[in-house]
């Protein structure tokens, strides 16, 4: 048995994180206390957005954003086929129809030209996914959205800490400078963690108030929003919402983690540099591409092998304790999607070719230099054997 196993991603928790959480445990509020709004303020400030609403996970964030956007029966919403299923499922939660648009062959994000080719009279929104931390072309996407009255929700689950530059001005992902809302996930494999958790950011007050209400059963106590007021006990359920609240315990962890985000991203980028310097001049590999005008926060390191033997490569690396993965199986390949929306194989050639030969190799800030060297040497051996 190998005693070494390096996962593709994992959290980095230190003593400061532990102390933040212990402080909440010893306070009056385990949930619905002051840490939630402190975390929301910190995330909004970090991104440069006016508002942030913290929720129980990234999928809940997507669900609420889709509802706040007003997606519903008869609407089509365009997203990427190369993403975690939640990016598309949230469209179904709202009763709308997901429509996929193929990806850019270089950065694996949704291709704006493909978005245009999928527009119809029913198009209501677009959910670009900043794949692996690389920001989508938000200039082009926001232009298409403006011209076609689409609502844009950025799935930034991979991309807190990333930014992009348009006309010389730098924007952080999550600032919603070119969208209506953005969502983050704080699952332990993501850049920072709250165990489970998510956030929606927006600059729109109306969306913000909808999100707050939807997060907590559709209920409000805000005197400015009440239809009537029957006394100090009074609250109203005005819309059909959920309990998607996050706890103070989780938000305390989030506050502490956020302080380290830029350091985590820098460490990720240093590891990416080492991987690239080993793999980029070798014709057996295709390394991740970073556009000139973006700063990727590198959630994942996706390596493509110019070899049909991905299964052999994958098995070998797993046997050697390298926790490889595949991100992602195209959403339209999943049986649920095939059964309910028909067989669309062949319609997304870039995404489907991508899926054939990609392997995600370990990337997380807690990797030691010797972990990185180990992964590099095992990947090289895998290529010698199978590529
Ligand atoms: C992780 C992830 C989500 C969902 O986040 P959870 O917090 O796990 O619910 C959504 N979209 C993408 C692209 C993700 O990677």
Descriptive overview:
The protein has 387 residues and is of the alpha/beta class. The chain is 38% helix and 15% strand. The chain contains 13 helices and 15 strands. The chain has helices at 15-25, 34-47, 58-68, 86-93, 112-117, 138-148, 205-215, 248-258, 261-279, 310-319, 335-341, 349-357, 369-386, and strands spanning 51-55, 76-79, 97-100, 123-127, 151-155, 163-166, 169-172, 181-185, 198-202, 219-220, 236-237, 285-286, 294-295, 301-305, 358-361. The strands form four sheets. The chain has a seven-stranded mixed sheet with strand order 1-9-8-5-4-2-3, with helices on both faces. Strands 7-6-13 form a three-stranded antiparallel sheet, with no helix packed on it. A three-stranded antiparallel sheet has the order 12-14-15. The longest helix has 19 residues, at 261-279. It starts with 14 loop residues before the first helix and ends with a helix. The relative contact order is 0.17. The model has no long low-confidence stretch (mean pLDDT 97). The structure holds pyridoxal-5'-phosphate (PLP). Pyridoxal-5'-phosphate (PLP) is lined by residues 57-59, 83-84, 86-87, 129, 155, 157-158, 185, 187, 198.
């Amino acid at each position: 048995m190998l005693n070494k196993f390096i996962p593709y991603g994992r959290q980095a928790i230190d003593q400061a994180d532990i102390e933040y959480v212990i402080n909440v445990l010893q306070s009056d509020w385990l949930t619905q206390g002051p840490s939630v709004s402190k975390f929301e303020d910190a995330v909004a400030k970090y991104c440069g957005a006016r508002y942030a609403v913290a929720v129980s996970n990234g999928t809940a964030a997507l669900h609420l954003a889709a509802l706040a956007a007003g997606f519903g029966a008869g609407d089509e919403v365009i997203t990427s086929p190369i993403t975690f299923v939640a990016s598309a499922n949230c469209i179904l939660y709202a009763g709308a129809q997901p429509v996929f648009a193929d990806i850019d062959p270089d950065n694996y994000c949704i291709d704006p030209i493909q978005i245009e080719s999928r527009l119809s009279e029913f198009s209501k929104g677009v959910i670009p996914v900043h794949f692996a931390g690389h920001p989508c072309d938000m200039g082009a996407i926001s232009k298409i959205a403006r011209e076609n009255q689409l609502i844009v929700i950025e799935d930034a689950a991979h991309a807190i800490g990333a930014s992009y530059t348009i006309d010389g001005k730098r924007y952080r992902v999550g600032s919603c400078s070119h969208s209506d809302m953005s969502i983050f996930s704080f699952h332990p494999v993501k850049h920072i963690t709250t165990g489970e958790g998510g956030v929606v950011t927006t600059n729109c007050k109306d969306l913000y108030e909808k999100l707050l209400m939807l997060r907590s059963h559709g209920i409000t106590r805000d005197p400015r929003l009440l239809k009537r007021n029957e006394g100090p006990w009074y609250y109203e359920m005005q819309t059909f919402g959920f309990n998607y609240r996050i706890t103070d315990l989780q938000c305390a962890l989030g506050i502490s983690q956020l302080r380290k985000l830029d350091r985590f991203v820098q460490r990720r980028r240093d590891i990416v540099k080492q991987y690239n310097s080993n793999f980029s001049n070798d014709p057996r590999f295709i390394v991740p591409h970073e556009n000139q005008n973006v700063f990727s926060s590198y959630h994942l390191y996706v390596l493509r092998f110019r070899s049909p033997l991905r299964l052999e490569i994958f098995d070998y690396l797993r046997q050697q304790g390298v926790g490889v993965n595949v991100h992602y199986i195209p959403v339209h390949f999943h049986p649920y999607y095939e059964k309910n929306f028909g067989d669309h194989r062949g319609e997304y050639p870039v995404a489907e070719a991508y899926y054939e030969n990609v392997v995600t190799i370990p990337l997380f800030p807690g990797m030691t230099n010797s972990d990185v060297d180990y992964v590099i040497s095992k990947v090289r051996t895998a290529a010698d054997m199978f590529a």
